[in-house]
Design goal:
Elements (H helix, E strand, L loop, with lengths): L1 E4 L6 E5 L7 H11 L6 E7 L5 H8 L3 E4 L9 H14 L4 E4 L8 H6 L4 E5 L14 H10 L3 E8 L9 E8 L6 H26 E5 L2 E4 L11
Parallel strand pairs: 2-3, 2-5, 3-4, 5-6
Antiparallel strand pairs: 1-9, 6-7, 7-8, 9-10
Length: 227
């Protein structure tokens, strides 16, 4: 059992993206903070490719951005992890979100931020997860399987793909006439809500991890303190 205490002041979050990620979930976090719905602020976005819509969204909001490519010639996996860790440490980051990050995170990062790394996945894990299950691949598999519901999952990141304890899930009905594209659009809308809720729970409210279960702490409302 491990208790993860939330930060009631202003937690600092880094977001990692891959390739040409669009960044709509990143935008959901930025918008929620601007609206006062989240204390947590995104202070750094790290991408693997400079031509990324997610990085451009961050730049437009004055958020620090970096391009750190794991494919840089001569860079080993260990060196990639060390470079990421240095960037996160320099900015005093409290937690990390993987939003369209398609690699397995270096083990040094997982160890340093244990139970403070969130990943979003477009299905109801543990179904339709694992290596190679991303984007339209997931939604095509959901439709082919004939299931009636799917959704979005935000989970804590461990040493493997999509296997960490689940923090938040949002459910979406699968319609008879759905295509991978139409289903993806509806699931994405749920992703925006799920990632904001999960960041609030882990970074601000605090959680308890018991085995593979995430137990959320009850929130205290202002009415409970009213005279």
């Amino acid at each position: 059992m491990q208790q993860i205490s939330g930060n009631p002041t202003a937690p600092r979050l880094a977001v990692l993206v891959s390739g040409h990620a669009r960044g709509s979930n990143l935008q959901a976090l930025i918008d929620a903070h601007a609206a006062g719905e989240l204390l947590t602020s995104v202070v750094l976005v790290i991408g693997t490719h400079s031509e990324s819509a997610a990085l451009e969204r961050a730049r437009c909001k004055g958020i620090d951005t970096l391009v750190i490519s794991p494919m840089k010639p001569g860079r080993t996996e260990t060196e990639y992890g060390d470079t990421l860790l240095q960037a996160l440490s320099r900015r005093n980051v409290d937690g990390v979100c993987l939003l369209g990050y398609m690699r397995r995170l270096p083990l040094t990062i997982v160890a340093q931020f244990r139970n403070r790394i969130l990943n979003i996945h477009p299905s109801l894990l543990p179904l339709f997860g694992g290596q190679g299950m991303y984007g339209l691949n997931v939604h095509a598999a959901v439709i082919d399987a004939g299931v009636k519901v799917t959704g979005a999952t935000v989970h804590l990141v461990d040493e493997d793909y999509d296997t960490g304890p689940i923090v938040v899930q949002q459910v979406v009905a699968v319609n008879d006439d759905d295509t991978p594209e139409t289903l993806a659009k509806r699931v994405l809308e749920c992703e925006h809500k799920a990632i904001v809720e999960a960041v609030r729970l882990v970074m601000e409210t605090g959680i308890e991890v018991v085995g593979r279960r995430v137990i959320t702490k009850p929130t205290t409302t202002s009415q409970e303190h009213a005279p």
